[in-house]
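User: Could you go from structure to sequence for me? I need the amino acid at each position, not a summary. Structure tokens:
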């Protein structure tokens, strides 16, 4: 009988209930909120479900992120090895490969002026950088935090890893992906505040057809130009353009399908769960995390506003032919930001179709955020 009681006593004391802190319970609650938003509300479930579940796991069983040195048998936790792929910038680069294979660059090629709106939307990144410096972060940490303003999770993770800010990678990544999923909530009030109803009703002319040759040459030329100027962008720009070349060349259909489907979803699972698992209570619940979340919101808001304001300027210069709403798509949340431009435009006029026009600044924003990351690496490394 004593033996049975001893066994049951050991089992009870080895349960998670005896090791959890109040912070772990807070993070478990946060994970459940994220799961609710992803499953019930549909806020970017492909990202939020694995992130939230990784958050849930690490706050119940911290050893799932333990390194081999921290475990008694020297094997390390499962998600530790997934996380190494984030630190080594492998998973973010593979995400870009999939994004390139999924994305039609035609709207950007047909309307090169979209690059201006994509560039303007990066303004929030530089605002956040200087604000982060003022808040006490060092230059590398400030740079890694500021990329949240591009609404680009993979680039945020990539830059944090390259700049050695792995301690901040969890909060940065969660903030970036959270704002990506909340694009439909955050952007519309800013867009409506900065535009008139008349501007929102502007119908744009149909884009010109883009030839296959243009679509094939575009990723090759962009890779040569951008990587020659900023070599550190090669992993991101290179993979983005390689994926797009798979898509547009028409001779490697199997590679394009693999990159945009099977490989993409495998990488999302690995990246999402490992990012979520980097948010243990002791690493996440601190003042720096609150600062990062605030700075990310400021960066994202300023980026959206800058894109819309450049759109308004281009509207004036074009004699009212450009709808300023498409400027908000200059943040690189593809294709969510473009869909938001379409939604807000359709609210003003149900017959207004802005989606393809908004995809130009949206794709330009992806390139712009990668260029911003490359600029920080060129300066700080």
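Assistant: Here is the amino acid at each position, in order:
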């Amino acid at each position: 009988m004593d033996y049975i009681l001893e066994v049951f006593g050991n089992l009870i004391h080895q349960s998670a209930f005896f090791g959890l802190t109040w912070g772990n319970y807070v993070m478990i609650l946060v994970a459940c909120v994220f799961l609710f938003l992803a499953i019930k509300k549909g806020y970017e479930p492909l990202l939020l479900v694995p992130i939230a579940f990784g958050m849930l796991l690490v706050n119940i069983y911290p050893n799932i992120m333990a390194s081999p040195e921290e475990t008694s048998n020297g094997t390390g936790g499962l998600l530790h090895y997934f996380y190494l792929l984030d630190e080594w910038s492998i998973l973010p680069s593979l995400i870009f490969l999939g994004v390139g294979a999924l994305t039609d660059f035609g709207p950007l090629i047909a309307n090169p002026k979209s690059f201006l709106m994509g560039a303007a939307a990066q303004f929030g990144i530089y605002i956040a950088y200087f604000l982060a410096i003022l808040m006490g972060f060092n230059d590398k940490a400030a740079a890694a935090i500021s990329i949240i303003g591009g609404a680009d999770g993979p680039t945020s993770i990539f830059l944090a890893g390259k700049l050695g800010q792995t301690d901040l990678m969890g909060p940065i990544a969660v903030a970036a992906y959270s704002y990506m999923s909340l694009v439909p909530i955050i952007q519309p009030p800013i867009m409506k505040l900065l535009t008139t109803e008349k501007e929102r009703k502007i119908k744009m002319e149909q884009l010109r057809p883009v030839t296959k040759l243009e679509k094939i040459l575009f990723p090759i030329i962009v890779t040569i130009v951008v990587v020659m100027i900023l070599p550190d962008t090669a992993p991101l720009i290179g993979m983005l353009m390689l994926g797009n070349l798979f898509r547009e060349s028409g001779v490697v259909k199997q590679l394009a399908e693999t990159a945009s489907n099977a490989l993409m979803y495998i990488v999302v699972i690995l990246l999402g769960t490992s990012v979520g698992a980097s948010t243990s209570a002791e690493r996440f619940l601190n003042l720096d995390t609150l600062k990062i979340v605030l700075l990310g919101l400021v960066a994202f808001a300023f980026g959206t506003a800058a894109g819309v304001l450049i759109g308004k300027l281009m509207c004036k210069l074009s004699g009212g032919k450009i709808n300023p709403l498409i400027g908000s798509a200059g943040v690189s949340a593809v294709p969510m930001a473009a869909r938001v431009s379409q939604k807000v435009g359709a609210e003003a006029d149900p017959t207004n179709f802005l989606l393809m026009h908004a995809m130009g600044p949206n794709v330009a924003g992806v390139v712009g955020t990668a260029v911003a990351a490359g600029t920080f690496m060129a300066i700080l490394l």
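One structural detail worth keeping in mind: The first helix runs from residue 2 to 14.
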